[in-house]
Amino acid sequence: MDEKLDYAKSLSRSGRQPTVQEHLQAVAQQAGAFGAKLGMEEPCRMAGLFHDVGKYGDIFKEVLAGKATNVDHAICGAAILLGSMDDSLKLKRRYRPVMEAINGHHTGLMELELLEPALRESLVSEHAVSVNERKVAALAGPAAYQKVMQKFRRDFPHFKAPSFPAFSASDPALPAAAQNVESMLHARMLFSCLVDADYTVSAADDDPEDSDRTACFDFDPQALLEQLYAHRAEIRRTSTAEEGVNRLRDKLFDRCYAVGEREGGLFALTAPTGTGKTLALLHFALRHCQVHGKRRIIVVLPFLTLAEQNADTYAKIIPELLVDHSQRQLGDEAREFAARWNVPFILTTSVRFFETLFAQRATDCRKLHNIANSVILFDESQSLPPEVTSATLWAAKELCRRYRCTMVFSSATQPCFDALPQVAWKPVEIMPEHSELFRALSDRTQVEWRLQAKTPLEEIAREMQAQNSVCAIVNLRRHAAILYRLLGEQSPAEETFFLTTDLCPAHRSRLVKTIVHRLGSGLPCRVVATQCIEAGVDLDFQCMYRALAPLESIIQAAGRCNRNGKYGSYRPVIVFEPDEPGRLYPGDWYENAAILVKQLSACRRIDIHNPEDIERYYRELFKRAQDKAALTEALENRSFSDTEQAYRLIDNQGVRVIVPYEGEKALYEFVRAQALQTGMTPALMCLAAPITVTAFARRLSGFAENLRYSKRGRPGEAASDYHLLLPQCASHYTGDMGLQLPEKATYDWMWKK
User: Fold this and answer.
1) Which of 223, 391, 410, 444 is least surrounded by Cβ atoms within 10 Å, i.e. has the fewest?
2) What is the pLDDT of residue 727?
3) pLDDT for res 536
């Protein structure tokens, strides 16, 4: 190592040690290339050129020699840019996202308003300031910064500050929160280009043969269309669906292809359940990519069960399918693609996709720039939580307007988002005559609104026992357990099934296969479930019971009754209100929506096959809708960290419990041994996902052990939100009902021999 040179990194495994000049040049070039696809080449190149300029400082040599730690070089590039502006508000507005990206490229975005005092102090104070993760700045005071800038000018003698327009909102009349959704997404996109460039260049330094592997995937929409047609022909050959249903599926499939030729933007697809939306959406996306040169297709699904089911379908058509969600076990190469989304076809969850649009951390934002110029298919759009709806729709519109995305919101119960104030939601409806589809399928089911009085669960159990193919969906796991036990008193165990999130994913998956087999074979099958069955579980019952719920949930439940029309006409869907003490609903919004259904049905019978009734429901519902106050405040303040904290699609109030499911006993034993020996790591969390359930922490005392996060290969002091069901309490995870814990621990196991 030449002591006179300024190195950016330690000597790599490949024997390379890039200088600061080499690293800045490489990252600037790569970030500029990424940014060019977004119309942001110059600011991204500038961010790359200044992101590690603090490594020119003397103290960084000590960092590389192992003599100094907790040194922050990222803040220095941002400080230099701020110091070059001579208090020009125009320049500050122009360079604000560049400074934010540079400062946060190892940790996360921080708004300039919060960062600026530290930047100014760093420029003038001889004492190193501390900002990012309490590390001290690599430079302090005018002399140190002047020395660094001399080295920068030596290495880049022809550098001239680029001129590019400052970001401006699409409409100055928008509320402040909406304008900041746009400006923050712009900053995240720039940040994404810088972070991905930095990580990619650094990986190539470690391994010169490592490069952007996107080139190894050929995205050929025509070839995939032929695969799609072959797959669909095979489905038709073996289909048991009534011919009228198949004709409607053909109509929807063909329409999606035709509309796929239109210019990109926002689209909606409204069609009843069972009309083949999954393949029709793919038909739209492939044709749209073929005509308009889109780079990739991203399928966004609200539930893990739905993601896994659709992954199985798409994998038969798409060879290089990347399935990216929290419970997916990925190999090394797939993990790299998941971090970057630089593949042609991605299937992910709404949590992963939408929370990325509002993320703060570098690792979460890295993939963001690869969303640009994509076709995004958001299925089950009614699942979007009301407390984040406006912010999400603003972001979706911005993806289409500024980043050349095409986005489809698909649902059998399409929400009237245009009823939300200040959103101006005007997608193009792919199937404007969708009312005809609903009418054509309206004879599959008939709803009985049994809401004049509450119905005891004992009565539901008696009625279910008289049916051979029946499902009851209730709102709470507590109600499901009561109904299942009541039904079990009257029906043989092999004919009765329990499907809730008390069962781990591996257990649920195996149980669903058993249910599908029994239904297909005409064997008696009675199922008690919660909402987890309403989407992503392709079951078809002759009779359905649904506890009073939001209208979209009732319609989803009805979609699991006589789905293919093979059970004749007007199969019963009974909507009832359980006669049970305590809360009847899982949350306030859910309860308000259910009560609205009851009120509307009392005034006039709701026809779930009539889009006008669905629209009436949503318009009334959205009169009460607004984003959560914490999210609106965070956006108005343009706070990246507060926004990330407030924007949550799932308000997860429970903790995770790793359970000894009999079907995955070997996995449980392996995870248990590793967790106790090394602590919880991200890889172990992913491995444990199939045998993990969620429970309230207060219920776990005496039954489960809290696991620690791993630190240097051993369990550290920090407690994780993962728990391990104690071996002596294994009987509390049963083969029929999953995790069933009593209200209070009895500690009887301590006295058993």
Assistant:
1) 223
2) 87
3) 60
